[in-house]
Amino acid sequence: MNDPTCRVLLVSGDEIARYGFGDGHPFGTDRHEAFMRELHKRGMDGRVLRASARPATREELEWFHLAAYVDLVRERSVTGHGYLDAGDTPAFRGVYEAASHVVGGTLTAVEAVMAGTARRAFIPIGGLHHAAPERAAGFCVFNDCGVAVHYLRRKHQLKRIAYVDIDAHHGDGVFYAFEDDPDLLFADLHEDGRYLYPGTGRAEETGAGPARGTKLNIPLAPGAEDDEFHLAWARVEEYLLAGKPEFILLQCGADSLAGDPITHLRFTEAAHAHAAARLCVIADELGHGRVVGMGGGGYNRQNLARAWTGVVGAFLDSQAQQGSVGEIAAR
Questions:
Q1: For residues 192 and 222, is the Cβ–Cβ distance under 8 A?
Q2: Which of 48, 175, 178, 228 is close enough to 10 for a disulfide, judged by CB 3.0 to 4.6 Å?
Q3: Catalytic residue of the set 101, 129, 130, 274
Q4: What sections of the chain are H helices per DSSP?
Q5: Which residues neighbour 209 within 8 Å (Cβ) at sequence distance 6 or greater?
Q6: What is residue 319's predicted lDDT score, i.e. its pLDDT?
Q7: Which one, of 125, 102, 278, 267, lies nearest residue 187 by Cα?
Q8: Cβ(312)–Cβ(48) under 8 Å?
Q9: 130 part of the active site
Q10: CB 293 within 8 A of CB 123
Q11: pLDDT tens column, 130-151
């Protein structure tokens, strides 16, 4: 880890671990610790740089979310009563602070990569891709992915940013917020919405208005395994190479692994490691090397621990990865 280009930052700690829901909710607060135990077991915790999450500012949250919705979250954060959507995402005391730290944690990761203090970065409790500007959805209160896109544009004047999503659920909160933005590259590999929440992400959904034809949605049938993943993933690589993004965000939800209690895909953790490794190759070949991973979904604790440590391992090993743009394009 003496070579500064090899640095990998992990954003972790109690601030983001508090984001979760009680009473047997699938998105519990134990997910962070399950990942950290596996990271330690594999000896990776001593190989990464470490940072804690900061809270996102009100201004940062409102780059993506409506002020009235931010107010609602703050109000229900005090009482801990009610829901923030139609029934999947309950309020709890301190939900505003926990959710704003998730957003701030993703921005901490993004900023470290932009500053050059890290080559890649990972935040386990991040990737809350369902939240819409005006509401929570699917266990997601604030959309850290969407805020990160605005952050990169406002603070660093980047234009072409790639959002890649391999969570079993379609990243609808990101897709529809940037549906008409031709400079937001969107590649989402997910379980077919006819069988899984949120019911969106058809292959025909390629963008709107000036962005029509610029987005890539790849729905897969329930039961799809690594072979189907790799066939679809080749399309993602081709898409990214053509788009030449200046920064890559990876939402690596582990609910696409076999054995998740609420989804039906059957990937192994090798799919997640492969995706992370190949994105590093692409980012390096494009000349910037900027990749940030966000944990996303995953409700089988063993699965998420293995998938996310696989991503971190791929980031750590990425300098040794072989391959070039020519080799990728030749597939």
A1: yes
A2: 48
A3: 130
A4: 14-17, 31-41, 58-61, 67-79, 95-115, 144-156, 172-177, 226-243, 269-285, 301-317, 325-329
A5: 179, 180
A6: 57
A7: 278
A8: yes
A9: yes
A10: yes
A11: 999 999 999 999 999 999 999 9
Task: Please check whether residue 64 is in contact with residue 133, taking contact to mean a CB–CB distance below 8 angstroms.
Answer: yes
Q: What are phi and psi of 172, to 5 degrees?
A: -65, -35
Name 86's bridge partners. Answer: none
pLDDT band at 320 (very low <50, low <70, confident <90, very high): very low
- Decide: helix, strand or coil at residue 120: strand
Q: Is residue 249 within 8 Å of 258, Cβ to Cβ? A: no
Cis check: omega of the bond before 182, within 30 degrees of 0? no
The closest alpha carbon to 147, from 308, 292, 315, belongs to: 292
> Cα–Cα distance between 302 and 304 in angstroms, integer?
6
Q: What is the CATH number of domain 5-329?
A: 3.40.800.20
- The structure's pTM equals 0.94
Q: Among candidates 167, 107, 95, which has minimal Cα distance to 136?
A: 95
Region of poorest pLDDT, from 115-129, 183-197, 221-235, 309-323: 309-323
Helical axes 269-285 vs 301-317, angle rounded to 10°: 30
What span, in angstroms and rounded, lies between the C-alpha atoms of 88 and 90?
A: 6
pLDDT classification of 203: cutoffs 50, 70, 90: very high
Tokens for 61? 């949250």
Burial 14-35 (b: 16+ CB within 10 A, else e): ebbbbbbbeeeebbbbebbebb
Quick one: tokens of 249?
A: 């965000």
**Secondary structure letter of residue 27 according to DSSP:** S
Q: Where are the domains of the chain?
A: 5-329
Q: How many CA atoms lie within 13 A of 239 on its CB side?
A: 24
Query: What gap in Å lies between CA 65 and CA 57, rounded to an integer?
Result: 12
User: What is d(CA 55, CA 65) in angstroms, rounded to the nearest whole number?
Assistant: 15
Answer whether 147's CB lies under 8 Å from 107's CB.
Answer: yes
Are the beta carbons of 257 and 265 closer than 8 angstroms?
A: yes
